[in-house]
Amino acid sequence: MPDNKQKMTMHDRVAAVLQGEKPDRLPFIDRMEIWYKSKCQDDTIPEKYSGIEPYLTQHLIKEETDYRTAEYIIEHAEIVPRFEKILEDEYDLGDNGFVVPCLHRIPFQQALLEYLGEIPLFTALYESPRELDRLINLLDQQLMEILHRLSDLPSIYVEFGDNLDGMMTNPKLFEKLSASVIGIK
To answer: What predicted TM-score, i.e. pTM, was given to this entire model?
Structure first.
């Protein structure tokens, strides 16, 4: 990393902050999701990105029998690290930024936002607790496998895509389904 007296690149600034060092100035870190939404709202999205829907349009579990299908997919998924893609993207980006590898959300958040949706998940807490617990446990096992494989990733920062707050995850649910995953006892 360059001496702080020299002008730092954006990559160097981000790396300095992540390593607890002082950069020459604060880095600007943008999220592509925010860029995409703003470009769509202003109707200035580049043609090659026009019409792409970056979000789920429906959830994977719509009825009780869908749990078995989701479980089968999770149990038989092959986790394939794509470290070369991250390194390639970092090379292409050069000193203009920082590639941030992102992980799945923690299991409860995956169940809430990807597998069931808000109302069906809270209904499942009472009407299908065994199926929901099994789904969350399988997602937890899958996440642990991913984390284990990440030990070989040559990156100083990896991000969980979670955004936990009290609106969807009350303290009792947080303690039961989220706290242990993120290392809070």
So the answer is: 0.73
